[in-house]
Amino acid sequence: MSRPESIPPPEKAASPAAESQAPEPFAAGPQAPPPSAYTPQEEEIVLARLRALGYL
Amino acid sequence: MGIIKRLLSRAQPENKLFVLSLDGVSHTFARRMSASGVMPNLGRLFHQGALVSLDSVLPTVSTVAWASYMTGVNPGKHGIFGLVDRHPNPFSTLIPTSRDIKAPTLWEILGRAGKRVGVINVPLTFPPRKVNGFMVAGFLSPDLAQATYPVELAPRLMEMDYRIEVDIGLATSEPEMFLSELGETMTRRFKTCFQLMNEEPWDFFQLHLTGPDRINHFYWAAWEDGAEEAGQRFEDFYRLLDSYLGELIEQLPPGCPLVLVSDHGFTRTLGVVYINHWLEQNGYLLFGRGKKELKNQHPDSKAYSLIPGRIYINLQGREQMGSVGQGRPYEDLREELIHRLGGLSHPETGQALVKKVHRREDIYRGPHLTRAPDLVIEPAPGFDFKANVGVKGLLASPETSGMHTFEDALFYLGGLRAELPGQGLKLEDVAPILLSVMKIATPPSMDGRPLV
Q1: Tell me: the pLDDT tens digits for B157-166?
Q2: Which of B65, B107, B169, B428 is the least buried, fewest Cβ under 10 Å from its Cβ?
Q3: Inter-chain CB proximity B95 and A42 less than 8 Å
């Protein structure tokens, strides 16, 4: 098994300002949702598992 | 000298660590199974290390909990708040995946320190992120071909007939087959683990078992009630688990500490609470014409819920149906909902349905707080909060016989004779403890305490 080329860098520690109550993104307007990791068919498989467990 | 330092002073030179994570196995349940003789290997382990209970996370669902375990931070920093989440504008729901974890994971930190890791089946690891070693993603993987890092591992797992997850739908339609598949799936998981332990180099290995959570959801009440056949089958599953635990102990390299950890406690489900029904009946949740669904809310709708008990205010400028002004109107509505939801009780028995309603800033901190639900309902034990719409009433009979609890998750660290703190230990403390055992400094961004 090959060693990965790179491992993601660590996230910077949150600054004290970021830790505090950040304001809501006022009047941000509509934004496209992030792309899903699943195709629609794959999402159905996963949703069915969650549904069977009573998680939906 | 700190207790972890005392442990390390006896640790073997190779400094390996094995974690067996047991989804849904509570501290109290594990003690009971070991004391009753159902799990003798577990009982022997408990005499050879430190065993404590952990507090889980809110909301108490597996992906949020395991995200806190694997990052050592609270949801305000890792950004996972439920098994489903919502995009506020335009409204849509989505399933968070490993891509949505906003903090480095335990195995990424270990990899950067030069440690080889092997991780099998931990929830919220799909799609598998790069690690210094290998990763088999957990139950949110749609298929095995996409579930491994590196991809070359998948064909080997197929040869071993490894299974991602039991067909949970069988639990109600064909219970006998469900129980059989649960045992078989766990068997294949252990066999795969043993093979990879022997064939691949590793410093840190984690095998995650989802079977305990699954059987607890469907057989908890039968076991508690002492139901003759179902209770016996339930214990048979744990006997099988214990026999593999014994085999695992034999296969561990000499001196390699074994850690057991779970994500939450478990209790009997008393009833389902449909919180969107309550919000609708009380004028907070309004729907537009057409199909009754959350993406079709009326422009005057003020609040809605996602499972389990997460309340979102329709805040102006944030949500698609932003009807509630920022500042005082938002705070007044939160205060009103905290008061009214906190007083919900069972109409027949008078039992409280809610333990506490939390403002998000009281339980989360960090850069992703703004994506958190505005309020989080902590249910009274046994009441399962759902977000279905179009249901007939606030309460319904349980869909499953067992459910999660915030308290009473399990943590066991082998080889440690000293006492761990008796209470107040949290799931996010586990990653710093494991890093300490591996002699790696805890990143300052972690919330958890390394206990050194």
Answers
A1: 999 999 999 9
A2: B169
A3: no
- Which residues of chain A does B448 touch, with a Cβ-Cβ cutoff of 8 Å? none
Across the interface, do A37 and B168 touch by the CB < 8 Å criterion?
no
**What are the residues whose beta carbons fall under 8 Å from the beta carbon of B52, sequence distance 6 or more?**
B27, B411, B412, B420, B421, B422, B425
| Mutate which: A3, A39, A41, A53, vs B, most B CBs within 10 A | A53
B186, B168 contact by CB (below 8 A): no
Q: Which of A28, A42, A43 sits opposite B317 (nearest CB)?
A: A28
How distant is the Cα of B44 from the closest Cα of chain A, in angstroms?
33
What distances in angstroms separate CA B368 from CA B56, B75, B143, B317, one per listed residue?
19, 8, 30, 17
Q: What φ, ψ does residue B386 adopt, rounded to 5°?
A: -120, 165
- Please identify which residue in the block is written with the tokens 């298929």: B143
ipTM of the shown complex: 0.81
Query: pLDDT tens, B187-232?
Result: 999 999 999 999 999 999 999 999 999 999 999 999 999 988 999 9
Q: What's the DSSP call for residue B287?
A: B
Q: Do B370 and A24 touch (CB under 8 A)?
A: yes
With CB atoms and an 8 Å threshold, state whether B104 touches A2: no
* Contact list, A14 vs chain B (CB under 8 Å): 77, 366-367, 445
Cβ A11–B97 below 8 Å, yes or no? no
Helices (H) and strands (E) in chain A, counts: 2, 0
Burial of A47 (0-12, 13-18, 19+ CB in 10 A): middle
3-state SS, residue B81: coil
The values of phi and psi at residue B423, to 5°, are: -150, 165
Cβ contact (<8 Å) for B152 and A1? yes
Q: How far apart are CA B4 and CA A55, in angstroms?
A: 37
Rounded to the nearest angstrom, the gap between the alpha carbon of residue B234 and the centroid of all alpha carbons in its chain is 21
pTM: 0.91
